[in-house]
Amino acid sequence: MNADADPLLSHQHALQVLRDALERRLGELLPAGCESDVVARAMREATLAPGKRIRPLLMLLAASDLGASDRDPALLDLACTVEIIHAASLILDDIPCMDDAKLRRGRPTLHRQFGESVAILAAVALLSRAYAVAAEAPGLPGEQRAAAVTTLARAVGLQGLVQGQFLDVSEGSGARSVEAILATNELKTSVLFGATLELAALAADADARATEALSNFAQELGQAFQLIDDLADGVSGTGKDTHQDVGKSTLVATLGESAVRERLSEHLARADAHLAAACPEGEHTRHFVAAWFTQQLDLIG
Amino acid sequence: MNADADPLLSHQHALQVLRDALERRLGELLPAGCESDVVARAMREATLAPGKRIRPLLMLLAASDLGASDRDPALLDLACTVEIIHAASLILDDIPCMDDAKLRRGRPTLHRQFGESVAILAAVALLSRAYAVAAEAPGLPGEQRAAAVTTLARAVGLQGLVQGQFLDVSEGSGARSVEAILATNELKTSVLFGATLELAALAADADARATEALSNFAQELGQAFQLIDDLADGVSGTGKDTHQDVGKSTLVATLGESAVRERLSEHLARADAHLAAACPEGEHTRHFVAAWFTQQLDLIG
């Protein structure tokens, strides 16, 4: 029994070490400022509120599976940039003119804590901070730091999160085709996963074949995440508004739950195959992804 | 007469050539996309609507005065980044939870044309585009491209435009000290001028002394611009809402118009001295600044 249990315990312990390093570094990168610095407090609240840290953990694990050290300071900072960008995107997702959400990560949404103007300014400041952190990632050559900025900016901009948010807001209440829903999911989720894995490859100096396989992995993973999110809507305990998707055409509403569960399995199987191709010698990312989805499916029941 | 008139005409012609190059390049950097791409259209409208292009022209002229070629493609792209960031900041300045402005550059503000969610997303996408353009500036070494991103991100973020906008919104309706008004003006205007001139120095590979003098020039110029803006409030024909500042404590309201005009002269004199120190051999920027303020003061009457 012990021989089987040890690798799992050791995996859990290693994850906790990475989580602690991420929390510490995020706290350093977003200085507290003085009490009157309301935007700084809002930036910290949005980013440091307890979160799953999926994207930065994925980056650290994938880079480690590719042979990089997960203690590399540049890698840690790049991991923080995707978490900061994710936090900014959640702020904007929640504001009154978008989803007008009340709860996020178990707390009142940022605009309900700080007001709408501070929430928007905090999102803009977080995005700027993420680009600056990438541009200054310690120890990376300038060429790679500039490339990291480009990768992040593409994931955020007109062909990424911004377009996904626009499609979500503008088409959310009408009937949508399965293809339209998949396209929105791709922009809202897969694109930032794509950037996350691209930066893992960049930090690990991966070859073109591994980078391509990671990109395919990110596509499948992003779709799987969006499906889990859709399946979880209506389940309490997620820390978000329940039934936020009522009136939106999601894949669950369009295809039914069992078809969505089947698609989810397919995405996960393909994700796993791409990941195995990208990192034939590292298993951290595969364990992490498998454990995470198993846990989420248990929560949904 | 001709001997005196020629340099002026030649200066005007050179400016028009630079303006044309800027308009063309801005149009290329913000692709039109298809008709249904509403965010792309909003990004173009916000940036390409006729504007004074002060910041990018300053960058081109200052870099040229420092010995760089104003035809350098990297310099042109960096000049576009500050205009794109300026356009994004105006969008956010105008939205309902900030100034709730109706007119900008003689047209309905962006949120009145496209709705609030598209306006906010267009601002975010424009900022991302600016960072990507800087990160990819053609022909510059990676180190300098990364440094350009850092310069821009600092000007936008918590110590720049974001903080200026926050102070403007949160303190605008209460009585403020002269020092508080100057601090807000510094963040709302001088910081982006500072980044503009820093990028001019970077593109021209200027020495530390010239870079420092340009930074001092930017400080003085930013304050002068904010004073002209305050003096112009209430004057129609600026393309913006008139009397937008009613109820805000501006320097004009606090110190009176003649004291503000005196301060303006002092800022301009100091700006000119710093500029002469930075570029002892080039006069394009000095001519441009002098002509611009003369014209603005004529408009105000």
Short description:
The structure is a homodimer of 301-residue chains. Chain A is mainly α.
What descriptive keywords fit this protein?
1% strand, Farnesyl Diphosphate Synthase, homodimer, mainly alpha, 13 helices
Descriptive overview:
The structure is a homodimer of 301-residue chains. With 301 residues, chain A is mainly alpha-helical. Chain A has one domain (15-300): Orthogonal Bundle (Farnesyl Diphosphate Synthase). The first copy, chain A, has helices spanning 2-29, 38-48, 54-65, 73-94, 110-114, 116-135, 142-156, 161-171, 178-203, 208-232, 251-255, 257-278, 284-300, and strands spanning 103-104, 107-108. In chain A, strands 1-2 form a two-stranded antiparallel sheet. The mean pLDDT of chain A is 90. Chains A, B: This is Polyprenyl synthetase family protein. Chains A, B: Keywords: Isoprene biosynthesis, Magnesium, Metal-binding, Transferase. Chains A, B: Pfam families: polyprenyl_synt.
How many E-type strands of chain A? 2
Task: Output the number of helix runs of chain A.
Answer: 13
Low confidence ranges of chain A: none
CATH superfamily descriptor of chain A: Farnesyl Diphosphate Synthase
**Beta-strand content of chain A:** under 5%
Name the overall outline of chain A: globular
Helix coverage percent of chain A: over 70%
Instruction: Just give the CATH class of chain A.
Output: Mainly Alpha
What integer value in Å does the Rg of chain A equal?
A: 19 Å
- Structural class of chain A, by secondary structure, is mainly alpha
Level-2 CATH architecture of chain A? Orthogonal Bundle
- Widest sheet: strand ordering of chain A: 1-2
Oligomer: homodimer
Domain count of chain A, please report it: 1
SSE order of chain A: HHHHEEHHHHHHHHH
Instruction: Report the biggest beta sheet of chain A as strand number plus sense, adding barrel if it closes.
Output: 2 strands, antiparallel
Query: In whole angstroms, how far apart are the ends of chain A?
Result: 28 Å
- Average pLDDT metric of chain A: 90
Largest interface: A-B, 48 and 48 residues
Briefly note the CATH topology name of chain A. Farnesyl Diphosphate Synthase
